[in-house]
Fold:
Amino acid sequence: MDDSLRRRNIRTAWLLAGFAVFMLVSSVPFWRGLVRMMSGTAGG
Amino acid sequence: MSTATLTHEHDHHHDHAPTGWRRWLFSTNHKDIGTLYLVFALTMLFFGGASAMLIRMELFMPGIQLLEPDLYNNLVTNHALIMIFGAVMPAAAGLANWMIPLMIGAPDMALPRMNNLSFWILPAAAIMLMLSFVVPFFPGGGSQINTGWTLYPPLSLQVGMSMDFLIFAIHLLGISSVLASINIIVTIFNMRAPGMAMMKMPIFVWTWLVTAFLLILVVPVLAGGVTMLLFDRHFGTSFFNAAGGGDPVLFQHLFWFFGHPEVYILILPSMGVLAAIVPTFSRKPLFGYKHLVGAMIAIATIGMVVWAHHQYTIGMSLGAVKYFMIGTIIISIPVGLMIFNYIATMWRGSMTFETPMLFAVAILLMFTFGGLTGVMLAVVPADLQYHDSMFVVAHFHYVLLPGAVFGLFAGVFYWLPKWTGHMYDERLAKIFFWTNIISFNITFFPQHFLGLAGMPRRIVDYNAMFTEFNVVSSLGAFVFGLSHLLLLYIVIKTVRGGRRAEAKVWEGADGLEWQLPSPPPFHSWTTAPQVR
Structure:
């Protein structure tokens, strides 16, 4: 595997890992809001 | 689908495979890691199967025969988690490791060391999972995990320390899955041979690309959910604890946002296997390649936003319930399209019925049946009656065994000669197929009637009126469980020897993987093939 391909692989992997971390940390506030909305208590 | 000019020199003299335990522990070779995944999955299949046998033994007759109620529910929990995370997902990852580089003309996975890590996290996770089962048997070990695989609070907040082992195991399994998914996506995006455009990739590779994205999207949400559970248990937070102002239903949403796409994560790779098998044994090109790719993307996209059909009974707003019902029913359109594509591929083909094709036909029939009961469960007023009954157990076993497990069996029989260089014993394989399929139906078909008659699931005892169907179901389950010993024997026999397999094992097979010898050299595609 040449160096440029190796670097490209690692770059893509970090991008995807960042996406996974985003899903992890964004889940809490998002889901709390959604549950409130769906149970009809939005803003309450 | 794609033809290639083979410029690859198969020089076995330079095939330096490491030997001994170092070969497996430090392996960065996609084929070796694929083999490790498959061996691990087969081992876990027997652990998960043993727990299922105990469950069916207990349910053989009404009354409590062998298991205390909490132990029974712990076995239910363990059976699900072992089968999903320990058997099916690693087996699919094993097929991916073995086949994706061979199919796209890559020398290996894009990140070979991470590939090693992804696998070796799994045995550690499996030990934690087993410990979660074993710990309550020791003094001070606390209570059994009686929550089922859904781990709903408030019950999961009250379970002893075994729940902490389980949460840690889920974290490890999640890390392993996400790392493997990242590797698969990077491999598919960056490592394809020249000329292997995305729309020339085999459908199996497409199914894994979609599956890997699904995993990256949903596994972190489960990780967030169980971490919050851990905080509620030990650090005084109240995410899910109603006594502290938390909401137990929040956990259900977090769980099912993972749990429902997980069904597609389990099924899609097997559907990819069918896309290889059906054209091979029909001796026709795959019907509707582009539509199949579109259907898979549609299944994944819609599958991500219909999770709450598992929660109709929690008291959602009417608008939400309507949305989830309609969305769930809409999924049957791309799933149906996929099934029709496979049937259209068979139409007027020169079909032969070797074991992989027998499995493929059986899958189409039984998975469709499981899909039909899924539509029944998607309809809210009906689901309110079926919810938490044995009907649901029958439904998801008809979806997951044909849709995921049998697809993996089909893939193993299809590619085993390529992996080992030996043909498997077709006669024994057919005996395995028929025993497996017939006993599967004897086990799970009666459970529909049990559920419709009102037998609840996850309860150790039942009313005497349910006895007959339970006896039939248990007898079927014992044969079904034992039939897997034959699978083990066939695999071991094939690995140890047998008739030599040619490079192109099956007459109608097409694709880059069949241009390599059987077994492929330790380092394959060191020179990339040119795909036309």
Observations:
- Residues 3-38 of chain A form the longest helix (36 residues).
- Chain A has one helix and no strands.
- Chain A has a mean pLDDT of 81.
- The radius of gyration of chain A is 18 Å.
